[in-house]
Amino acid sequence: MGVESTPLRLLAPGAAGIIAPPDDQGVCRRLLELGLVPGTHVTIIRHAPAGGPIELELRGYRLCLRRSDLAGLRVISTRPAP
Q: Looking at the predicted structure, is the pLDDT value of residue 3 above 90?
């Protein structure tokens, strides 16, 4: 039985999780270089209106990325949104 994972871009602000290993090996190398590697704890800070970027907190810093850039990343939820 596998662990349930959710697309990172669908998490609500305040939710947190651990980045899951990608199903698709086409995950952008740039994301890996930014620290979005499997096993990393990430928290959703906020979503920009009208489908804009998502602000994340991981490894002691904050990062804003387009939803389309996060399309291949999934997380195992550790804390639901408040």
A: no
